[in-house]
Prior knowledge:
The chain has 7 helices and 17 strands. It has helices spanning 2-31, 45-60, 217-236, 256-263, 297-310, 328-332, 364-378; strands spanning 63-64, 71-80, 85-89, 92-94, 100-102, 109-119, 122-125, 130-135, 150-155, 164-169, 172-186, 191-201, 241-248, 272-278, 287-291, 316-318, 337-343. The chain folds into 2 domains: 2-76 and 175-378, Aminopeptidase, CATH 3.40.630.10; 84-169, no CATH class. The protein is an alpha/beta fold. The strands form 2 sheets. Strands 1, 2, 11, 12, 13, 14, 15, 16 and 17 form a 9-stranded mixed sheet that branches. It has an 8-stranded mixed sheet with strand order 4-3-10-6-7-8-9-5, with no helix packed on it. Bound molecules: zinc ion. Zinc ion binds at residues 201, 219-220, 251, 279-280.
Amino acid sequence: MKKCLIILCLIIPGIAFSQDIKLTRTILDTLTSKTMWGRGYTNNGLGKAADYISAQFKAYGLSPMDGKTFKQDFSFPVNTFPGSMELKINGKSLIAGKDFIVKPESMGGKASGKLEQKDSSTFISSTDQVVITLKDKLTWSVSTKLTDHTEIQVIKSAITTPENFDINIENSFIPEFKAENICGLVKGTAHPDSIVVFTAHYDHLGGMGSTTYFPGANDNASGVSFLLSMAKYYAANPAPYTMAFICFAGEEAGLIGSKYFTENPLVDLSKIRFLINIDMVGTGETGITVVNATVYPKEFTLLNQINDANNYLAKIKSRGKAPNSDHYFFSEKGVPAFFIYTTGGIAAYHNIYDLPGTLPFTKYDDLFKLFIDFNSKLMK
Length: 380
Ligand SMILES: [Zn+2]
């Protein structure tokens, strides 16, 4: 019996971690599926992702942060592309996402005509309504603003010299798009007023037209699936301190969800001992980078000590302050915070090639263990 127990104890942690990578993969596939439509602003993609994440929180046994609901509502303006997304250059039909992107602040419309060359890569219609630019690579984003013309970026390999165009692009500007942050926690068993927070944005860019969407596997379905695995772990193994988990919306539109949370916090910000934001954690061959490392040197040293003692990651790179993800408005408000992303491996970013199958999750287990060790050492 004793022997069996010892063997079980040795086996169980291993099982727990391997189940987590399985769970992470399932969540990753769900979040990047066509149904969720790039977790954005058309086909209710963002709303479906919000429902899915809060259902996961509930299933694991987390408590809503405000005691009532996992969802924190807010709204913001956004320009969307729900319908037609057609472009012909010199009579050739181009493929949305692969051959071209429309700049996110663009007005839609139906038009055709001749193009006049302005410089080596810019071509403008005689009405000034349509601008075509040639690019080496395409990177899409989200806009909260709307301009009075249509700008389209075309990949150089698709066309040599644009002479005439034909567009049929539908846009819809939504002044108050409704979005939700998903906020849950596992109450501490001994010191519930001391909080460690994990955050990851679940929104991505959504869809561009009715046939093209951006899956955003690394950015940031990877972070959300990782966060959910951690949430499940802590719900099953509550810590002495409170573990809080937030999945933000509106990150790609300008850190809107996390800014809203810091202005309308559901936990006392002064009780947050530390916050770790994870955004793009699907690789890890060369290690991780820590934004705010130089701002919080004590915690950065601790992270390195744990890593060195256990040989988890190849390298932990230090970076200074940067307003490049959801940690930013927290540290601006005095909440100690790191933003962590993995390095090495694939580099697809804000394009249609950021797919779940490309993510190796090379350092999934090691990163998971590093975080759990860090939390417990930090809160000792
Ligand atoms: Zn991101």
